[in-house]
Specification:
This protein has 244 residues and is of the alpha+beta class. It has helices spanning 44-64, 71-93, 143-149, 155-159, 197-200, 205-214, 219-229, and strands spanning 2-9, 19-23, 31-39, 103-104, 106-112, 115-121, 125-130, 133-136, 180-185, 191-195, 236-243. The protein has one domain (2-137, 168-243): PPM-type phosphatase domain (Phosphatase 2c, domain 1), CATH 3.60.40.10. The protein is built from seven helices and eleven strands. Strands 2, 3, 4, 5, 6 and 9 form a six-stranded antiparallel sheet that branches. Strands 1-11-10-7-8 form a five-stranded antiparallel sheet.
Length: 244
């Protein structure tokens, strides 16, 4: 059985909340959890994040029952949902001057048969906690992460880099996007944490691990409070899922 809890908060600086998330009901056939961090314009980010999630969600829910439920088909379904959401957001952005250049990160976690099928674009993150170890499953699609990968700067330097918010890949900014799609085991007692960078820029991995392990129901609220205490410079969203 899957239990999931979430919290989204505007933070202390922004005028509106451009993050958006979705949690399946535990009785739904498709166990689907999504998070998006929008960007752009006056309200472009808000529109992009909600539109991306609604589009990807309906694509997955409409097609899930039609496919043969093996690993490759589910991976393909998640990837196609993200590509379709990208196209819808991109087309919407072209419709009006105010929405020009809007885009969003998108994290999808589809749970099926003790596996997590994960889709990822942008710099929101997905972690998995298993026993006493927390592992980051996604690679940030950011300029700074590319510098780290190339060995130009250290992970430590990346934390305080002035261009840390610059994305090299986001959803809705180009006609086509190539999402990262993967499958990971999601066994009994495993925990998945999905978060926007408003959390991970202000709260340490150690703290995320500690609170998620302690109480998945209270953790989202507590993590948001800590991010706000540490400055709350951005919208903050966290989704915590546990295989009970």
């Amino acid at each position: 059985m899957i239990k999931a809890y979430a919290k989204s908060d505007i933070g202390k600086v922004r005028e509106n909340n451009q993050d958006y998330y979705y949690l399946s009901d535990s009785i739904d056939e498709v166990q689907l959890y999504m998070l998006a961090d929008g960007m752009g314009g006056y309200n472009g980010g808000e529109i992009a994040s909600e539109l991306a999630i609604q589009t990807a969600r309906s694509y997955i829910e409409n097609n899930f029952k039609e496919i043969h439920k093996d690993k490759d088909n589910i991976i393909q379904l998640v990837g196609s949902a993200m590509e379709y959401a990208n196209m819808v957001v991109y087309e919407k952005a072209k419709q009006s001057k105010e929405l020009e250049g809007m885009g969003t990160t998108l994290e999808i976690c589809l749970i099926y048969n003790n596996r997590a099928f994960i889709g990822h674009v942008g710099d929101s993150r997905i972690y998995r906690i298993r026993k006493e170890f927390m592992r980051k499953l996604t690679q940030d699609h950011s300029y700074v992460q590319k510098l780290v990968k190339d060995g130009t700067i250290t992970q430590e330097e990346a934390t305080h880099h002035p261009q840390k918010n610059m994305l090299i890949k986001a959803l809705g900014c180009n006609a086509f996007v190539e999402p990262d799609v993967m499958v990971k085991g999601f066994l009994k007692e495993d925990i998945i944490v999905m978060s926007s960078d408003g959390l991970t820029n202000l709260v340490s991995q150690e703290e995320i691990f500690r609170l998620a392990k302690k109480d998945i129901e209270q953790a989202p609220k507590e993590l948001v409070e800590i991010a706000n205490q540490n400055g709350g410079y951005d919208n903050i969203t966290v989704v915590i899922i546990k295989n009970i």
